[in-house]
Amino acid sequence: MKLYDSDWAPNPRRVQCFLAEKGVTIPRIHVDLKSGAHLHADFARINPLHRVPVLELDDGAHISESVAICRYVEEIHPEPPLFGRDARERALVEMWNRRVELGLFSHVGAAFRHGHPGMAVAEQPQIKEWAEANRPKALDAMRFLDRHLDGRNWLLDDYFSIADITLLVAFDFMKAARLSCPDEYGALIAWRDRIGARPCATAR
Ligand SMILES: N[C@@H](CCC(=O)N[C@@H](CS)C(=O)NCC(=O)O)C(=O)O
User: Fold this and answer.
1) Are strands 2-5 and 54-56 parallel, antiparallel or unpaired?
2) Which residue out of 15, 30, 52, 112 has the highest number of ligand 1 atoms within 8 Å of its CB and is therefore the one to mutate?
3) What is the pLDDT of residue 50?
4) How far is the C-alpha of 130 from the C-alpha of 110, rounded, in Å?
5) What is the pLDDT of residue 117?
6) 3-state secondary structure at position 154
7) Is the CB–ligand 1 distance for residue 20 below 6 Å?
8) Is residue 123 within 6 Å of ligand 1 at its C-beta?
9) Centre of ligand 1 from the C-alpha of residue 51, in Å
């Protein structure tokens, strides 16, 4: 088994964070996104969508999509469970993971891809107005998450899950999108401090 990933991009980081929380290591093949290594025809055999991360299994199968990779890892390394421990918790994890993906991650991603000069070639057409339109949406999501986290350790109270990992990656990726968390969102900032002590925070 090997993992095609990159050292700075957010979706590969989601998998690295997940593996760090599991205490699992998978051999990695670095794909240099900046030089366009993922755009080569050869990489299409690994992922025809030319994106990382991709997990290559020993039978030659390729799993892309960061959450699909994490689900596979959860199946083969069940401890500690990060997708929920019973039906109720699994549904709540899915709910919060999707809320973070759709509510924050996607807006931060759009602000980055459409606003950063370094993405002008990769993101075509790059629409600056779309980057700007996504900034207030990201702020709305931060406000929503801040309110939810008030009085809670993690998105699911005392249970740490993949949803927190998704939030960590989205939160930290804000810097690249030139977004920041307003000081008034104290519960969200305290959550970021708390997760900073976990293995996922330093995973790369
Ligand atoms: N939905 C995919 C997204 C994968 C993705 O967009 N990966 C980015 C890095 S974060 C990428 O490979 N970008 C290359 C490009 O846009 O050309 C996932 O969850 O893994």
Assistant:
1) antiparallel
2) 52
3) 95
4) 7
5) 92
6) strand
7) no
8) no
9) 4
- Which CATH topology does 87-198 take? Glutathione S-transferase Yfyf (Class Pi); Chain A, domain 2 (1.20.1050)
Nearest CA to ligand 1 atom 1: 65
pLDDT tens-digit profile of 116-127? 998 998 899 999
Q: Give 23 Cα–ligand 1 centroid separation in angstroms.
A: 24
Domain-by-domain residue ranges, the chain?
A: 2-76, 87-198
CB of 69 closer than 6 A to ligand 1?
no
Give the distance (Å) from ligand 1 centre to CA of residue 52.
5
109 lines ligand 1 (CB under 6 A): no
Superfamily of domain 2-76: Glutaredoxin (3.40.30.10)
Residues in the chain where the model's pLDDT stays below 70: none
DSSP 22-84: HT----EEE--TTTTGGGSGGGGGT-TT--S-EEEPTTS-EEESHHHHHHHHHHHS-SS-SS-
